[in-house]
Amino acid sequence: MASAAEQLAANLNLGVLSKATELKKRIWFTLAALIVYRIGTYIPVPGVDASVMAEILRQHGGGILGMFDMFTGGALGRMTVFALNIMPYISASIIIQLMSAAVPVLEALKKEGESGRKKLNQYTRYLTVLIAIFQAYGIAVGLESMQGPFGSAVYEAGLFFRISCVTTLVGGTLFLMWIGEQITARGIGNGISLIIFAGIVANVPTALASTLELGRTGALSPFFIVAFLLIALAVITFVVFMERAQRRIPIQYPKRQVGNRMFGGENTHLPLKLNTAGVIPPIFASSLLLLPATFAGFAGTQEEGIISRIAAALAHGQPLYMAFYVLLIIFFAFFYTAVVFNPVETADNLKKHGGFVPGIRPGQSTADYLDRVLTRLTGVGALYMCVVCLLPEILISQYGVPFYFGGTSLLIIVSVTMDTVAQVQSHLFAHQYEGLIRKARMGGRGGAPRLR
After folding, report:
1. What is residue 85's three-state secondary structure?
2. Alpha-carbon torsion 297, 406, 211, 320, what sign?
3. Dihedral angle at the C-alpha atoms of 388, 393, 394, 395, nearest 10 degrees?
4. Which domains are delineated in the chain?
5. What separation, in Å, do the N-terminal and C-terminal C-alpha atoms of the chain show?
6. What per-residue string of b and e applies to 400-416 under the rule 16 or more CB within 10 Å gives b?
7. For the segment 257-290, what is each residue's pLDDT rounded down to a tens digit?
8. How many Cβ atoms are within 10 Å of 10's Cβ, its own excluded?
9. N or C: at which end does the chain have fewer Cβ atoms within 10 angstroms?
10. H or E stretch at 267
11. 342-351, pLDDT tens digit by residue?
12. Cα separations (Å) of 443 from 205, 438, 452?
């Protein structure tokens, strides 16, 4: 009996150790891939004067360039091979997702399951190449016309530079797309999201160091720095709570008899997230509002110009900017939620499988009920996103916080962190269950003790 128990424990420990080793390999692979990404953000594009590009971005950092430079971890400001980052792939994914709700052919592919998903992913890759070529060519042409205090941003403008720049930037985007897919398949977490996460987090140490340096020199009071850190911790806690919040709609399935066996009769629920749209509304809203500032910065218009007036009225911290920011976030929250969740389709699927919401008639009544609940949830989620996104604007404009770290970045960081932690926990739980099953099976052999 003792030898059987010892053998059981040894086999169980060996299985858990092997599974833990697999999890470690996944984590190390993810870290190695992210290190490769960060190294690539320091490899410059051939023919570009990095110092001139950095000065130009410093002058026009209040527009879209500043926001995308934050997402790329400074790769755009240094004009490196990863200057486009993974943004073309994100744009292509959003376009395909929106078109799948409007184009019947793509909508049919979406309903085909795994095979349809593979075809949509392939279309997304093709569209990523087209978007990356278009954006890279625009950057190449724009670089040739940029002039900084130290001269032109390009050493030798011409056709050869445009071809090399487009090839380098498109190749960098495709390489990042491949790295993201490898992380998803062989690592931990969603690879594309982790790349964006790494780019945003790369700016955090510099921002904190500058804040502490201002505190050391007396520009900021120690009380303000401590209060700011406490507010940041409270906001992160609030974001985690709201991102995990969901409304669970009870679903029941009736019992049915097939031969001598009974099937169905179980109770489950349909989870509806409070923030179904995710980080898409703040990204779209901030992108649209930063367009006037970007155009005004590169057009070089004078103060009395209409573009400059609009850009000044829509600058960070201005009341008009905050008002439009709130309205656009609310609009895109409802719009994108309507794209990704179809109450009529959900109600039809429930009806086909015999499921129903207690107290609600199947079919159109269920669709109306789900639409009503989702509308209320989206309204609360939109207000939550407005609060999170407006707080950094208020801190910058009213209290002089020395760096910009918007609500969009905070939402991305918290969401990606929660998703990665959830995947790590799922791996650990799966390993524990496998160990328990193995122990239970071995407990039924040769007088070995059973689990009770």
Report:
1. coil
2. positive
3. 90
4. 1-203 (1.10.3370.10)
5. 17
6. ebeebbbbbbbbbbbbb
7. 566 666 556 778 888 888 888 888 888 887 777 7
8. 10
9. C
10. strand 267-273
11. 888 888 888 8
12. 52, 8, 10
